[in-house]
Amino acid sequence: MEGNKPKSEFGSLRKKAEALINEKANSEDQYSYSSAIQFIHELEVHQIEIQLQNEELILANKNAKESFEQFIKLYDFAPIGYLTLSEDGSILELNYKTASLLGKERSSLLNKLLGFFISEKSKGILNTFIKKVFDSDTNQYCELVVDSDTYSPKYLSLNGIKTKEGNQCSVSVSDITVSKMAAESLEKSDVLLKKSQIIAKIGTYILDFSSGKWSGSEVLDTIFGITIDFDRSISGWVSIIHPDWQEMMIKYFTEEVIGGKTKFDKKYKIIRQNDHEERWVHEQGELLFDENNELKKMIGTVQDITMNLLAEEKLNQLSQAVEQSPLAIIITDIQGVIEYANPKFVEMSGYNLEETIGRNPRISKSGHTSPTQYKKMWQTITSGNVWHGDFHNLKKDGTPYWVSAAISPIQNPEGVTTHFLAIEEDITLRKKTEQDLIEAKEHAEESDRLKSAFLANMSHEIRTPLNGILGFTNLLKDPTLSFIEQQEYLEIIEKSGSRLLNIINDIIDISKIESGQMEVSLTETNINKQLEFIYAFFEPEIKNKNIEFILQNNQSQNELIITTDSEKIYAILINLVKNAIKFTNKGKIEFGYTLRKDKQPAELEFFVKDSGIGIPKNKIETIFKRFIQVDISDKRAYQGSGLGLSISKAYVDMLGGKIWVKSTLNEGSTFYFTIPYHSEHQIKDFETTDKGEIKNEHQIKNLKILIVEDDEISKLLLSKVVSPYAKEILKVSSGLDAIAISHANPDVDLILMDINMSEMDGYEATRQIREFNKKVIIIAQTANVLTSDRKKALLAGCNDYISKPINKSHLNDLIQKYFKKRV
Ligand code: ADP
Fold it and tell me: Which residues form the PAS domain (predicted)?
């Protein structure tokens, strides 16, 4: 803005002065001298004045020029932007500040529309502003946004007024970006605060103690379910509290908070006023005091924590479920380091929590699970899938256990695996049961196979003696037979019969063992005597085979008496010696025992040694199993049921011992078995004991005997067996007849009562006989040798029992037992 005034005013002034002089000279046609002198003087004065004025003017002009330049400087470089706009919005003038606020060169802005340089959305505002400025005489204001090359926009405020001429407007421009941003962020944070209050369900309040009133935020109203007209007094607050909590809360507020000048911090129940729902809130408040320490206000927050509590409860339930789970639960990080393990895992593994957390589950590795399985597992879970499988683990104390595991990745909402979860069930028992079942199945199949072989063998074993009995019985019918022939046939029949009986006894014994009905009956047993008896029993047979027979009795000077089941020891020894005889054709058979005090506990070790055919090595394991014979084809040559050793083994087991064999093929075998030897057993001097028990058989001949038997052959056999003891024998075939004949013959001494009879069995007949005859001796004879049957017989009133077929010497023993005193 430079010199647009006329270059000099002096030219025109001079002209004006000359005109004035001329005018004066014309008005008076003649100048007087004096007046001319006067006039010249005036002119000179004027001239001086004019000169002075001129000088002043020059000075003023100079000053004005300087001020103008100063103004121009001030305008151009002012810290505030200025610009002049025309009515159509063109920029007529502007200073540097405006140019920099618009982000452009000043020259590029001149005579351009201001609207070009502001943001699109501000253009309307600018137009309105310009219109308002030109329509009014007052100051107008607006805010514009300038498109900025930088990320954040620039805000400008415009203050404008129309010029006097009315065709322009002067505008001042300021940068208000900072304050605008501050206001915006304030607004934002206020909105944020409000929103977060709503989300967190936190309401705020101020309680004024002087008025007893409180005011609260909108959120608080929502939490309490109250409207604007609610009574915002302390009693109003109390009325919101759940009735069960009111008393306690009043006490808390007055005594603890106000009385104790402490913070308000309590979770309590309210009844939300609009829907009468029970809600949980957490209220916190600070007390404010004035300079005199007088209580003024309480400011605080109330948060609706109902959902939090429910979530907490749910979380609690879940964590309880995990904690109390009967399954072991482990959570590891992605490296497999244990971060959590529940109590079941601790119990299962034997490692406590300190030993578990921070370690890898491989602490329980037993080495039995293959590395391939672990590899597969890692591949599965790291690719986001669930892995199922079994692990064989070791507890801390080394005990092995099996677990069935399901391992799955835990993923965050973005689908990234952050942890692994393992759920494990102890399946040791199941595994064992499975194993047992497999073994039982194999055993059952084996038994089945063996039983079939056994039945085939048994059929042969039973038929052979039966053929002997029937065949020779038939031959006996021949009246032309000599006495010697008859005796020979009878001997064969007797032998075949006893062989048959042996087989049947074996079968009964093994079935009793199998069904768990074989019992151990402990009595004082003189071991040496048993051995001597066996020696005496087998000596003739062995000598006959030209085999040496030796009883090795280490305690020969003494008697060894122990409490054991003597019948079972007999059975074992007899079986072993019988086998030795059966499988030995030359050499010798030795048997005996040694007292092994070196063993803990001490035991008696029996042995039966032969120089027979021996047992192949691969069969040694199996010969003690049921129905096993080393070689069925061989066996034809050596009769036997294949049950003897398994019965012996079962007996030895029952007595608490062991049985085994050492054998060399074609050289011989030695069978051993042990029974425990307890210290209370004594080795007695032969001289001092047992003297009175030497058997003294009495000849009993005068008994009146009643035989109750429905089988005619058995009846006949029985009457033959008892005839040496009888003066009279009565025979009946039924229980009813037995009762009748007993009535008629109260002097009967002995009744041999069959148990299994049709119509009325022996138990019932005995019971009824006992009603009128208490003193007659009744001996039950039964083919059933089960203990339960014997007990039943004794309960019915029998004195004793004897098994069929009747063994002569056993019957003799019983008759001696009951009648020897009567002789
Ligand atoms: P068996 O009644 O068939 O003899 P065992 O159970 O007593 O049945 O014996 C089973 C098998 O063991 C016999 O068949 C035989 O093969 C073998 N055995 C038993 N004792 C001897 C022994 N002293 N010498 C050789 N083999 C024997």
Answer: 67-137, 314-360
DSSP secondary structure string, 563-623? EE-HHHHHHHHHHHHHHHHHT--SSEEEEEEEEETTSSS-EEEEEEEE-SS---GGGTTTT
Contact criterion met (CB below 8 Å) for 239 and 221: no
The answer, yes or no, to whether residue 630 has pLDDT greater than 60, is no
613 lines ligand 1 (CB under 6 A): yes
Buried b (16+ CB within 10 A) or exposed e, 128-151: ebbebbbeeeeebebebbbeeeee
pLDDT at 627: 60
- What are the Cα distances from residue 188, in Å, to 182, 201, 591, 663? 10, 19, 110, 102
608 close to ligand 1 (CB < 6 Angstrom): no
Residue 11 pLDDT? 64
- What span, in angstroms and rounded, lies between the C-alpha atoms of 531 and 522? 18
Alpha carbon distance 125, 144 (integer Å): 7
The secondary element (H helix, E strand) that includes residue 47 is helix 33-77
Looking at ligand 1, which atom is closest to the CA of residue 506?
Answer: 2
| Mean pLDDT, rounded, of the chain | 85
Closest CA to 527 of 609, 604, 599, 607: 604
pLDDT digits (tens, 9 = 90+) for 714-739: 788 888 888 888 999 999 999 999 99
Beta bridge partners of 704: 728
Backbone angles phi, psi at 63, to 5 degrees: -60, -45
| Smallest CA separation from ligand 1 atom 8, residue | 642
CB 302 within 8 A of CB 202: yes
For residue 583, which atom of ligand 1 is closest to its CA?
A: 24
pLDDT value for 628: 55
Token representation of residue 369? 């699970």
Closest CA to 330 of 420, 393, 426: 420
Average pLDDT over residues 531-539: 88
For residues 45 and 330, which has the higher predicted lDDT (pLDDT)?
A: 330
Q: Considering all CA atoms of the chain, what is the largest pairwise distance in Å, rounded to the nearest integer?
A: 232
Nearest to 576 by CA among 500, 649, 658, 480: 649
**Cβ–ligand 1 contact at 648 (below 6 Å):** no
